[in-house]
Amino acid sequence: MRSTRLRLALAAGLASALVAQPLCAQPYPTPLAEEAIPNVLVLPERYPASWMIVHDFNFNALVDGRGVVVDTNAPAAPLKGWVQVAQFGNILHASTRPELYSAETYFSRLSRGERTDVVTIWDKATLKPKGEIVLPGGKRQQSVTYKNSFQFTNGERWALVSNFTPGQSVTVVDLENRKVLGDIELPGCALIYPTGERGFTTFCADGTMTSLVLDAEGKLASSVTSKPIHDIDNQPMFGMPALVGRTAWFVTYRGQLRGFDLSGQVAKEVGSGFTLGGAEGANPEWRPGGWQVIASSAAGHLYVLMNPAGREGSHKDGGTEVWVVDPATKARIARIPLQGVGSSIELTREAQPKLVVARVDSVIDVYDAVSGTFLHSLGARVAFNPQTLTAVE
After folding, report:
1. 54, 126, 162, 285 - which has most CB atoms within 10 Å?
2. What is the pTM of this model?
3. What is the pLDDT of residues 23-50, one digit of tens each?
4. Where exactly are the structural domains of the chain?
């Protein structure tokens, strides 16, 4: 009985103490200011040089690919917005007009039904579609994105779209007049490297490359096929080069660098190429590895993503270092260790450039491109699968 009275007394005392505390003693957070609805922000028509276009391939939902606009200098809030790139799409950023372009494929029942291929024109400020050009024939190439499956030519007035049925061809699209000009057949050849004023070069399965010149109507005016220059069995080249001016620098699976001058109507190899060499810490050897494995700086230096476990078949495994090379001296000038395994790299076009690395775990990291110092991470918040990176120029 005594213990019961004691428990009741303690409970009563505790209740009195709680009641005695005024409710206003607990501070309330400052209420948020009212926000107008809708509240739609607008981006600048010309993006800053710290921004980058990240192609989110979105493997978990391929019909919902995206071109994401990212500020690499804003780790707290890097995402500026995105445009849809649909299924197995490609994206281009124009420097001469305030527009983005996506080459994409839709089906009337999302993943089945009637197929429609289009080039969509997006407003860079609002990220809203402002037009589209329907591509005939349902033949646009659908593959994990290569930047060289969709390219400009003719001063960005035209776009070139890769097709695969499995017959290979390129559709020429007039972006200014919003119409298709026609197709160029490319039997046994693939990918697009803009060449000269109004043309492109493509690599072919027999190891040759063909340079094509288009006339004012977008038709084939002439073509030149080289002797075999590509050792596909022993030194296959990654399909996405880095540009230094109009020279496209390719790297092979085994670390050989080769340059091709694309300024004239016919692509020409620059010199005889050179190798990246080796380094300590490899098992069994250093080789390039990843998806977009080579980038360039305004100073003309090349950056190559390197894997210390290089072997036959490791070319897509990603890399743990970026090697910096001066093609003028054919010498490696720096090694940049990464925070994680990278899959794609690109440099911003700022006065003090940043090296941007998309990792295999979807994290995007940013480094000082000159010193190699790690600056900050954008995390895995801007893209589910950052596949390719495009600098804003």
Report:
1. 54
2. 0.90
3. 455 566 778 888 888 888 899 999 999 9
4. 40-391
